[in-house]
Amino acid sequence: QEANMDPSNIEEIACNFTGMVKPGIQIQVCCTEKKPHQNHMDLFFQVKNHENQKAIRNGYIKIKRGNNGK
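The chain above was modelled as a monomer; its predicted structure follows.
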């Protein structure tokens, strides 16, 4: 949604893997913070596994912003 469904808008991605997730198991991705800037958006996230344990911490995505402000 934030990248307008275009993966080329993602400039950077980083995270710390802290738990197990097996294929086919449901996960929960939670956006913890958004920081808009003039030319990009910083998104911070975490991922929880099916046992509600953090599988990814300190997730970060830098997304280019287009002329439409998204």
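The beta strands are 10-17, 28-36, 40-48, 54-64.
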